[in-house]
UniProtKB/TrEMBL annotation:
Keywords: Calcium, Disulfide bond, EGF-like domain, Glycoprotein, Repeat, Signal. It comes from Nyctibius bracteatus (Rufous potoo). This is CRE2A protein. Belongs to the CRELD family. Residues 59-98 form the EGF-like domain. It holds the Pfam family EGF_CA.
Length: 102
């Protein structure tokens, strides 16, 4: 079997998997920018919203950062994979970008 992966035939956001007589390009983990294999521990660098922790790229919880990311009144932060979103607190609804009491 010839290792076709030696020539790096895959795109930047993929890794090469050598198979008998061929190869396959597989997508890198969402936490990676470039990778050498499957999973968040094989990232070349971490994607935005992720940081290297215990040799893996893990999600940054922006809602627990010392500096608040959701600064409008009556607004709560919700952490998402690689990011966050700001939502109106319970009992409030978004009206033209402002959280007003319902």
């Amino acid at each position: 079997d010839l290792n076709e992966c030696a020539d790096s035939p895959c795109k930047d956001h993929q890794y090469c998997l050598n198979t008998e007589g061929s190869f396959a390009c597989k997508a890198c983990d969402a936490s990676c920018v470039g990778c050498t294999g499957k999973g968040s521990e094989k990232c070349k660098t971490c994607a935005s919203g992720y940081m290297k922790e215990d040799e893996k790229c893990t999600d940054i919880d922006e809602c627990n950062l010392p500096e608040k990311v959701c600064v409008k009144e009556n607004q709560d932060c919700v952490n998402t994979s690689g990011s966050y979103k700001c939502v109106c607190s319970e009992g409030f609804q978004d009206k033209d970008g402002t959280c007003v009491q319902t």
